Amino acid sequence: MMKKKIVVAVMMALPVVAAADGSPWLPVPGSTQVSVGYVNQTGNEFYLGTEKMPLPEDLKQDTYSIGAQYGLTDELAIDAQLNYARISFGSESESALGDSSIGVNWRAYDEFEHAMAPTVTLRAAALIAGNYDVGKLDAIGDGASGVELSVLAGKYLTPKLTIAGELGYRYRSGDVPNDIWFGANVGYSLASFVSLSAGYSATRSQGDLDIGGPGFSPDRFPEVREDRDLIKVGASFTVAPRTSLNINYGTVVSGRNTTKANLWGFSVATSF
Amino acid sequence: MTLPSFGKYGFALVLPFMVSTALASGSDSFGGGLSGEQAQYNTGKAVYAQKLACPECALAGKTLDKTQAQQVLTDTGLTAKLAEDERAALTTYLKLRFKL
Predict the structure, then answer these.
(1) What confidence tens digit (pLDDT) does each residue in A2-58 have?
(2) CB 3.0–4.6 Å: which of A42, A124, A128, A207 could bond A225 by disulfide?
(3) The pLDDT of residue A6
(4) Measured at the alpha carbon of residue A33, what is the angle toward residues A27 and A38, in degrees to the nearest 5?
(5) Is residue A269 pLDDT above 80, yes or no?
(6) What's the longest Cα–Cα distance across chain B?
(7) Three-state SS for A205?
């Protein structure tokens, strides 16, 4: 019975959140890019506070997503993403519709109009809690919606070589701590049909409560501080004139109250 | 519902039931960027700005409109020095931007 209570408390505490990972460059005006993605996260170690400890078994999360971006004008675009996740660890598993996001992107500065400047895009997004029930054993989140704001900047150093970065702030309702995230990415186009990328991203929670630390109890899970640092690499292949296959790998290199996970991501994107 | 408090080591006993959700909380996304034709479009903008319209380039200071874009696509002399993939990206950009 106690085990069930703990699971309920935990499942209510930390919902699936689509981490922002945007681009300062907007889609073609009047066109839509639709992508279908799958991300597998697996880990056998966990940061309890900042102390890394082994897990008795691998834990695994599969996230399926569908997303779309639409270019309204040269300077304005909207996007949306929906996630569905399955978590498994030993005999425990959970599947549910994750939170969704709807965002608007405004390109405030265009590098192609000012030779030395980067492209700068401001993004605002609404995070909408999934429609899962939170008062039962198989709940996957805590139903917290929110908003996030970020600044994205990027520059084509040459037509083949890009650098980009993002700095954002996420607010979520209830007791869920706010987050600051930042990241940097380098991209290189090997040819018109293949490009490579490498990047780093970090999330810093504004909370101060550690799992198992002073004052912690399972009902305070929404207040736990969760940090992570992720490095990632990727490749994108144009498999048809308007369709690309994207393969990504990432690994958590440090963290706090989070799993040291390895991630594989696959997605197909097409435009019309 | 009454739930217990946990010390650091006592907590390890229940960790297996907690970590799965902690993992879920940061479902890192690789998405959000542009790829395929959308990326080509932006690369084409860079080709135009850096290879054709730079201060020392043939089209420096000229306004890029539909007529100009058509000329770039048909005048092979303007794009003769571009690599094949640069020319492809430029073509994607101009055709999509000006609906050519």
Answers:
(1) 344 333 333 333 333 334 467 899 999 999 999 999 999 898 888 888 889 998 888
(2) A207
(3) 36
(4) 125
(5) yes
(6) 79
(7) strand
Alpha-carbon gap, residue A63 to A261, rounded angstroms:
14
What does chain B come to in residues? 100
Asked if B13 is an interface residue toward chain A (Cβ–Cβ < 8 A), one would say: no
Q: How many A/B residue pairs have CB atoms within 8 Å? A: 251
Give the tokens for residue A79. Answer: 């996007």
Residue of A nearest to B54 (CA): A115
According to DSSP, the residues that pair with A161 across neighbouring strands are A188
By C-alpha distance, which of A129, A182, A135 is closest to A22? Answer: A182
Task: Give the strand pairing for A76-89 and A92-97.
Answer: antiparallel
Percent of chain B's residues with pLDDT above 70: 67
In angstroms, the separation between the Cα of residue A28 and the nearest Cα of chain B is: 6
Please report, for residues A4, A192, B96, the alpha-carbon distance to residue A85 in angstroms, rounded to integers and kept in the order given.
21, 34, 36
CA dihedral of residues B73, B76, B80, B83 (deg, nearest 10): 40
- Say which residues have a Cβ less than 8 Å from residue B32's Cβ, sequence separation at least 6: A20, A21, A22, A23, A67, A79
Do residues B26 and A231 touch, judged by C-beta distance below 8 A? no
Over residues A71-110, the pLDDT tens digits come to: 999 999 999 999 888 878 777 777 888 878 999 999 999 9
Cβ contacts of B6 on chain A, cutoff 8 Å? 212, 216-218
Q: Is the pLDDT of residue A263 over 60?
A: yes
Q: Element (H or E) spanning B89, and its range?
A: helix B84-97
Neighbours of A96 (CB within 10 A): 21
Residues B89 and A138: their CA atoms lie apart, in Å, by: 49
Strands (E), chain A: 32-48, 51-71, 76-89, 92-97, 100-109, 119-128, 146-156, 161-172, 179-191, 194-205, 227-240, 243-256, 259-271
Instruction: Give me the mean pLDDT over the A196-223 stretch.
Output: 87
